[in-house]
UniProtKB/TrEMBL annotation:
One of its GO terms (biological process) is siderophore-iron import into cell. It is found in: Cell membrane. GO terms for cellular component: plasma membrane. Belongs to the binding-protein-dependent transport system permease family. FecCD subfamily. It is a multi-pass membrane protein. GO terms for molecular function: transmembrane transporter activity. This is FecCD transport family. The chain crosses the membrane at residues 26-47, 67-100, 112-133, 139-157. It comes from the Bacteria. InterPro entries: ABC_BtuC-like, ABC_transptr_permease_BtuC.
Length: 166
């Protein structure tokens, strides 16, 4: 027997979606978002110094091990909270910082600030497109972000590739 609700739940946890999410979902994870935001503010300056190298960061009074620990904690809180609300929407964490960096340059603080509007804008735009493309049904949000994100990943890999020796 085919259960539509079970199929929808499986699809949600495979591709992600923002359809049918209420404000209660956001309120549930809001404390984790706030803690992660405070951690991000705390590590923004040390991260900028670590971009210059660990020795420079140590010379400026930052402990790279502690900074990495707080960054991992903030990333885990943000990723877990976002996934709890919308499921695993692929490539957003890759495309958004890449786009932000291309707009504001290499400064990590400016990149993080620019990610704040770009992330939601990407998700909302992708959600609108998924609703328009597959009318009257809805294409899973993760499918569209994967279609956009896969070429971006290839561009990043090609840009970082070292020249081969002939």
């Amino acid at each position: 027997m085919y259960d539509q609700r079970a199929a929808d739940e499986i699809r949600f946890w495979v591709t992600g979606s923002v359809a049918g999410r209420s404000l209660d979902s956001l309120l549930t994870v809001l404390p984790y978002f706030l803690v992660a935001a405070l951690l991000t503010l705390y590590v923004s300056r040390p991260l900028a110094s670590m971009a210059l190298g660990e020795k420079v960061a140590l010379g400026l009074g930052h402990n790279p091990r502690v900074v990495r620990y707080f960054v991992m904690l903030a990333v885990a809180l943000l990723t877990g909270s976002a996934t709890a609300i919308a499921g695993p929407i692929m490539f957003v964490g890759l495309v958004v910082p890449f786009a932000a960096r291309s707009l504001v340059g290499p400064d990590i603080r400016r990149t993080m600030i620019m990610c704040l509007p770009i992330g939601p804008l990407l998700i909302i735009s992708a959600d609108i497109l998924t609703r328009l493309i597959a009318q009257p049904a809805e294409m899973p949000l993760g499918v569209l972000t994967a279609i956009v994100g896969a070429p971006v990943l290839m561009l990043i890999v090609r840009a970082k590739r070292l020249p081969t020796l002939a």
